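Is this the right way to post structure tokens for a design question? Let me know if I should format differently. Anyway, here goes:
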């Protein structure tokens, strides 16, 4: 039996993927160029770079769009599913200067995680903690495991917008409107010890969720008049 994803067998689907990626990149680039940013915690990102480390960017799935603009052109590698949606997302990310590790927690996950272990040392990686299917804002253990395995720090962050659209999807995807203010709150790096056992890893997972909740609160503060 072929392992090729079903959508690749359809000429129409392949054309749709190419069209979505081809139109999506310039649309997102133009939209993002209109946003005004308020950023808290940029020093945490800078400190990681000064130390010669590469971050494991940790975010919720619904905040991919602002993150794509903010962290573009850094060679960061993101996990993208091998399904239909994952393909056009990967193509758009690559045009913004990201790499792509293909797979997900439900399909191709172990292979993609092995690629991320290799990539994090050179470029840093991005991890949507609650993807690809949720539940929303519940961190899966993959990013914490990756930090333990590599010694690289988790860098939690969250974004909100003063004016936005919210998609009717499980992750409530945020799409900031043109010319709005986008708040970006970056938390302190979290270094998961290599000797952490399963109980310790769960503690770090909860700590990561708490950091993201604090970042969300900070975003609200940044957007207050």
């Amino acid at each position: 039996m072929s392992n090729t994803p079903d959508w690749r067998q359809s000429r129409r689907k392949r054309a749709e993927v190419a069209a979505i990626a081809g139109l999506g990149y310039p649309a997102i680039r133009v939209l993002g160029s209109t946003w005004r940013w308020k950023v808290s915690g940029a020093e945490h990102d800078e400190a990681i770079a000064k130390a010669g480390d590469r971050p494991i960017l940790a975010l919720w799935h619904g905040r991919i769009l602002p993150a794509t603009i903010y962290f573009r052109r850094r060679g960061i590698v993101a996990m993208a599913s091998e399904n239909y949606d994952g393909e056009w997302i990967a193509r758009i990310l690559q045009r913004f200067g990201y790499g792509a590790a293909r797979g997900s927690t439900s399909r191709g996950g172990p292979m993609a995680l092995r690629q991320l272990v290799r990539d994090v040392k050179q470029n840093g990686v991005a991890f949507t903690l609650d993807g690809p299917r949720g539940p929303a804002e519940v961190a899966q253990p993959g990013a914490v495991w990756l930090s333990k395995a590599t010694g690289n720090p988790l860098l939690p962050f969250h974004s909100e917008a003063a004016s936005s659209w919210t998609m009717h999807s499980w992750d409530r995807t945020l799409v900031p409107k043109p010319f709005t203010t986008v708040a970006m709150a970056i938390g302190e790096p979290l270094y998961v010890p290599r000797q952490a056992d399963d109980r310790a890893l769960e503690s770090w997972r909860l700590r990561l969720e708490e950091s993201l909740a604090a970042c969300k609160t900070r975003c609200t503060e940044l957007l207050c008049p």
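Format looks fine. Someone answered above. Worth noting: Residues 6-223 form a domain with the Cobalt-precorrin-4 Transmethylase; domain 1 fold (CATH 3.40.1010.10). The mean pLDDT is 90.
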